[in-house]
Amino acid sequence: MENLIVLDHPLIQHKISLLRDKNTKTKEFRELVLEISMLMGYEVTREMPLKEVEIETPVGVAKAKVLSGKKLGIVPILRAGLGMADGILNLLPMAKVGHIGLYREPDTLKPVEYYCKLPEDAEEREIVILDPMLATGGSASLAIQYLKEKGVKSIKLMCIIASEDGIKTINKEHPDVTIYAAAVDKTLDEKGYIVPGLGDAGDRLFGTK
Ligand code: URA
């Protein structure tokens, strides 16, 4: 598996264990997804370029650094990706947010697009796709393809749990995309759910089951 960064920080691992627990209720689940996304955001933004500036402090002038270069855009895949967006926006409130709506055709498990709205200047931004569960990789791959067709050149994929199959799919179809995952699980069941995973992230986030 290539282009994969697994964020195995103890705080993230602890919170993922709580997320996996079937007894974790909607409110706590939502808070955990937000907290994990914030912690992951720290690493996903590690290579953001800086420039030097001079800042007047109350006692002198400091040579300091501020973010510069390409601006960030985040693109949650609806609907479960929405749960991760606020975590990143807490860190980078100026990031623009696009949305891509995809559902999986139940028989074939193939993704079908039903909604897409991107920031106008998406192609000038560094885009981070948010999808908590990278299962077959089909939805994420289609979303990446779509962004590339719109001219986006720099894409990262951030998921909470990734399956080995999903990682292989992205590696094969988009070798230029780095995947950030907090955990990697081995298998998928016949419905395309990650095992052991955490169940349906959208249902657990929004209390729809
Ligand atoms: N989507 C989910 O919400 N969970 C999975 O296990 C796979 C895809």
TrEMBL record:
Binding site for uracil: 194, 199-201
MF (Gene Ontology): GTP binding; magnesium ion binding; uracil phosphoribosyltransferase activity
A GO CC annotation given for this chain: cytoplasm
Involved pathway(s): Pyrimidine metabolism; UMP biosynthesis via salvage pathway; UMP from uracil: step 1/1
Cofactor binding comment, as recorded: Binds 1 Mg(2+) ion per subunit. The magnesium is bound as Mg-PRPP.
EC number: 2.4.2.9
Cofactor: Mg(2+)
Residue span(s) of domain Phosphoribosyltransferase: 6-208
Top EC class for this record: transferase
Keywords: Allosteric enzyme, Glycosyltransferase, GTP-binding, Magnesium, Nucleotide-binding, Transferase
Reactions this protein catalyses: UMP + diphosphate = 5-phospho-alpha-D-ribose 1-diphosphate + uracil
SUPFAM superfamilies to which the protein is assigned, alphabetical: PRTase-like
Binding-site residues, 5-phospho-alpha-D-ribose 1-diphosphate: 79, 104, 131-139, 200
Regulation of protein activity: Allosterically activated by GTP.
Any one Gene Ontology BP term: uracil salvage
Similarity section: Belongs to the UPRTase family.
Function of the molecule: Catalyzes the conversion of uracil and 5-phospho-alpha-D-ribose 1-diphosphate (PRPP) to UMP and diphosphate.
Protein name as annotated: Uracil phosphoribosyltransferase
Protein's organism: Acetivibrio saccincola
